[in-house]
């Protein structure tokens, strides 16, 4: 298989404009003849569904939540980047492009990233026009703040609820189209199979979560915007419902899965407090603008109250190691630095797995009311979860799985190697390379949905001789049968373990063997243990209830089954990538504790092709070339 | 800590339903309320009993999925706290806790603690948006918005659509929910253009869905996890009145 | 022409001060008033006497530095004329001219004819601006401004901050100064966004600085070298009232 | 010494964008760790201080006036240029660039000028956002007018008070930052020494003008925005307080002074009326849009009332000599033409040093109310000063010193040869070459302060290993001692002449020997006379009063002392530049009465390095190359 990214020729800065001109168009009057399925209603899915419907396509949109307003995009706190340079502090499309390529440790496509930076400015305009209440200055213009990994203030925000407000903007645009009858919305409906006919994606099979009824839906294109796979680690900042099922099942139908080993560990989460925990909670990265990260210089001081440790006995390790970025070092760097000091025995709090994020200086400099205005809701959230008042004592934070840069492989048009299957947002692998910068996830999701797919999908339609497929096609029957068989099998095991307990075991295994640090040894061990655990699942899981009604246990078990296969792929990818880059840290490949890339052998995307149960997947590569940004060791010192 | 749970169980919309009692042992006070339910459910599964169905997703108080009436109060009655962010340290050892679903005519029951809140979506579909399509919009800084207006709009826009306001209201009114969206958009210049049409259509849909009337008791404000203020209802009434005056109908 | 000057001398803020008389010979009628004082000062220096301290800079009526009460009137009483642009041809040969500094509690004395007008700066610092930072603003033609509004804003914006209005007022009120800035910015869309906050903060600072109340005698308008109109004070009162109504406080 | 302008490589139109990207950045959270001193609060100083504070730097701003609102930028009448092409009359960034390079007689850096033209459009946006009440059309959009030296209407204006309104805009932005505690403002405070430590500018020594207390202020960078040196001629359109002290004392500490001989004589000033005069008053150049300049054709008619001279006996000499630009010929051309007709004995008014600027035709064409609306305040001002009504009889005008194109040498980053010393606005030499076009001074001051320094200063901070200097450093002690010694010396002379009389003598000497026309002979004479006059000053000046209180005589004497040294440098530069260009007219180098440049030998910047008292300064050159604009004889015919 040859992976052709279809990157337009011509100078980088003109590729997208030229490509938009070169792409074929669907006549306005003909758009209503095309049906599009959008799976997922987060930022990428909702913005795509709304925009496609506005253009005149017939859209069906599916989500497993009870309303499209609940997708986990809603939980993004910090903000959204855009190269507006409203602050006159040196930003530009080129700088956002450069920062993103560098931040991704030179493992993203230049052309995609440049387009993302270009489109970023339109996103802000669009969201403001929708009524998103971004933070304003007193003069009425938009406020910005800085964010991890950037030396300019380019992040637009709405208090600590930017994701919520952007999602509601997209949800409202989608709702408008639903109200107009241009989008048919299917909430509480889960995609369980992708249907491929003659190599083209032509529909999906879904389960109505209320009554268990399985139905088929045919279309001229299928768009997956189903988020990331962070919950393969069980504990992550993702919502409980986040899962890999839609993308993994598409993978099993032939879509290649790119760079699954690129996972992002976010440095500012509330540390784990016990075995009962169902998820981890992120504290917005924006806290690092004013909070200072430290641990005691000496192990002996770790048990003391932080106030009793004088400044001279504290190690502000980010400021020390990365003076020019300080507490705003990128996520992967900050996370590893926290792990390092904890590994040295200098961690604080339960299990010594925590570092301080201290606002004492900020309160002295800015006063408590100002700190409260900036971060009050985050301090409140911290107190609700930990019972501690962060105005009086430092927060404790620790890294946690947060985002996954890997995803289904897509070309420049966001189309997977299966024609007609488009993948957007966190579900694809495209723009962040091996590490994502703060406030860039919202940007990418909305770029894909509002400003990229609406152009590229038309090109696909206009370029193909369309054959109209209906749900009577045998492939739909086959897919429906696959679904039923899987359900029957899950209900039939009647074993002695809950799906949760197996998922928790998988997560612990993944975190320990393939988390912040990975080695040949740990990965090899994981690749032995995962199949065994999968075996345990299929022989000993207990799934209660029946198919014909709301059955959350059944839904969940199906997702865990996919994680148990996908986790193996992730570890295999990590084992094969014999270098360190961004969020992928192989202990064998480091230089003074920092990532050591191997550009000679690994400047490429690894995209895995499914070969059938029990067979090793095939690794394909798409070489990455860097014409604009000089390949260099990524330094934030 | 040890607790007694009295939990509403109902097989489906047609079932009549009733309370079931569960004793829970060795609850860690750092658990969230939903994590405590997870533990109960794991116990049920191992005993071959269907677990208690309840909605939840983000578990950090923002998605609006969770919807439990705890000890008679929507979300359990702690200031600005959804059920998923309520921690067990707020309860006493040995306490008996009742857990019920939202109950309102416009929110039909689905199963156990799960109800159907799609009426809220239909109200938004009726007018809870600015009618701009993607593309062709002015520069974001072209229209200044006073910080105070933007801040107020944000106060209203924070609504997570959980429906606690409806659950808490003796009339099962959706006024606070509708008021939050109407106010958010009416407070900003972008949304002012179609404010009248919006207010009329959303109120009409609210009535169609079967929500009750507002008698301004303030019980909605009291349970709102995002502290949406009652004065937005006053603003909605002004907006609606203004719209009636200008457009008639209603 | 020959003149007799009665000039206020005061060593420093603590000194009690008093008038000093100087005879000036052969004054060229084409001289400006300050050039006449320059000549007097050169004479004093050559006699080893410290010259009369007075503020001046641009000497073309725009910087607002000069601040002399001449024959009892701020800037000498010629229409739209600052002291630096007042020429000696406006005086009669043999005339006795008194020269004093601005006198107001909020403008503490510094020396001779120099006083401290930094209270004006602090009033501007409290709110006499549009809160935009450099960069990120819309295209200059994005918001049309009616020519009439722009012209009126310019009428107000011309204020040179000399303080003659305060010096002329029996209550030493700064209302004309504050009114000019509040009106300038409230008249333009760019400034409307924060008009309420601005009016409240500037008036509060004016009160803090110890300026007196306005009793609308119009003496300020009469001496204003930029002919800032009294009706801007009416506008300030409206702006302030509006702000109090909407924001409370005050 | 090698003067490296650090002009970025690459195509001219992309230099600034590329440079902005290439420059290092200071992380937003780190900006608060840098202290910046800004001296001067005119357009350049106030805009810089405000913008730097907005970015997060700690700023101290100093001015000698009692309020930052009084700087002499306030007196600029006519307008500000910007390449907006709102009039659709053919303007563009390239045309503004071209006009400025040509207007400067090919003695400015192409790269600087192009950047200025690019940035001009943002300035107008910025000022409008601040609430500057620019003139509007009835449709609500901005009005423009044309201005000397331009063939398009690109000048934005606010009646005849554009400088005032722009300065108040910058003053208000500055005031906002003062109110927020981000700028510490020091009015009535004069900078008397620059402090240099290890070759870097690290602070200043100032005198509190109210009580004479001398204090030291340390910083990571010093920004001088202290205006021009026109008052070396005593009579000029500058404010009384304008002086060369800040830049000249920085020069004595090692900053090179570039092109001091480039002085601009403005053609439309009110003529001198007697010996008492303390300054000259400019009549805005905008008057030339509608007024016609003439003198009688015959000497004999010069005493007649102008109305009695028929059209056929008038010489509209600008229209005659420069038909394509007419009355809008650039300033240097128009000034020399006025001198020429007066030298021929055809001048009008007292001393025959004046020409008519006649509005009779304009009033006939437009009506008096229209002329009053456009220029009323200027006509009023003319009447206040001269007692004449210009609606009824022509104005009399004559050239006067107005602006100085020379200034401290700076590189493309606006940094002098002393690292850490930045120079903005009229105080630097950078953008106008040998002649400035009308309405370009405001543009340059605001470009420097709002849009250039905020970028380049960060690059300096981020590129240096910063060493924190405090005012305890011996260099501060030394500078304070220099100040005290100078004060003691001035007060100790107790001679028989006022500083004013010596300054007036210097000014007359400069005007006669180095004014509108210069020759080897006149300059050689001046170079003999100036040291003698300086000697006279130090042995015979009378400075009254004492240091410990407000002492305007002492302040002034210190400034005159600097003019007495600087005047010599100016003449030396004029003598050395053996060509004519722009405002520098060497009678030996002319062709048909016009400037004759010598590109082969003088296409360079001359930057003078101070070598100590009594020693000749060293002349360094920075070659100027013209890649975009073809070097040509500047013609406005």
Q: SSE layout and pairings?
A:
The complex is a heterotetramer, with two copies of chain A (637 residues) and two copies of chain B (250 residues).
Chain A: H1 15-22, E1 35-39, H2 43-55, E2 58-62, E3 80-81, H3 93-103, H4 110-130, E4 155-156, H5 162-179, E5 183-186, E6 189-197, E7 200-208, E8 214-218, E9 221-224, H6 245-252, E10 257-258, E11 263-269, E12 292-296, E13 314-315, H7 317-321, H8 331-343, E14 355-358, H9 360-366, H10 368-386, E15 395-404, E16 407-408, E17 421-423, H11 441-463, H12 474-493, H13 499-514, H14 520-540, H15 552-576, E18 590-591, E19 594-595, H16 599-602, E20 604-609, E21 618-623
Helix pairs in contact in A: 2-5, 2-11, 3-4, 4-11, 9-10, 13-14, 13-15, 14-15
Chain B: E1 3-9, E2 18-24, H1 33-46, E3 68-70, E4 73-74, E5 96-101, E6 109-111, E7 114-115, H2 118-127, H3 147-157, H4 164-168, H5 175-186, H6 189-192, H7 195-209, H8 219-223, H9 231-247
Parallel strand pairs in B: 1-5
Antiparallel strand pairs in B: 1-2, 3-4, 3-5, 6-7
Helix pairs in contact in B: 2-7, 3-5, 5-7, 5-9, 7-9
Task: Please sum up the structure shown.
The complex is a heterotetramer, with two copies of chain A (637 residues) and two copies of chain B (250 residues). Chain A has 637 residues and is of the alpha+beta class. Chain A is built from 16 helices and 21 strands.
Provide a descriptive summary of the structure in words.
- The complex is a heterotetramer, with two copies of chain A (637 residues) and two copies of chain B (250 residues).
- In chain A, 63% of the residues are buried.
- Chain A folds into three domains: 44-194 and 427-466, FAD/NAD(P)-binding domain, CATH 3.50.50.60; 267-400, Flavocytochrome C3, Chain A, domain 1; 474-623, Methane Monooxygenase Hydroxylase, Chain G, domain 1.
- The model of chain A has no long low-confidence stretch (mean pLDDT 96).
- Chain A is built from 16 helices and 21 strands.
- Chain A is an alpha+beta fold and 637 residues long.
- In chain A, 36% of the residues lie in helices and 15% in strands.
- Chain A has a five-stranded parallel sheet with strand order 5-2-1-9-17. A five-stranded antiparallel sheet of chain A has the order 11-15-14-12-13.
- Chain B has 250 residues and is an alpha+beta fold.
- Chain B folds into two domains: 3-111, Beta-grasp domain (Ubiquitin-like (UB roll)), CATH 3.10.20; 118-247, Fumarate Reductase Iron-sulfur Protein, Chain B, domain 2.
- Helices cover 37% and strands 12% of the residues of chain B.
- Chain B contains nine helices and seven strands, in the order ββαβββββαααααααα.
- Chain B has helices spanning 33-46, 118-127, 147-157, 164-168, 175-186, 189-192, 195-209, 219-223, 231-247; strands spanning 3-9, 18-24, 68-70, 73-74, 96-101, 109-111, 114-115.
- In chain B, the strands form two sheets. A five-stranded mixed sheet of chain B has the order 2-1-5-3-4. In chain B, strands 6-7 form a two-stranded antiparallel ribbon.
- In chain B, α2 (118-127) runs antiparallel to α7.
- Classes of the chains: A alpha+beta (637), B alpha+beta (250).
- The B-C interface holds B 138-139, 141-142, 144-148 and C 136-139, 142-143, 189-190, 193-194, 197.
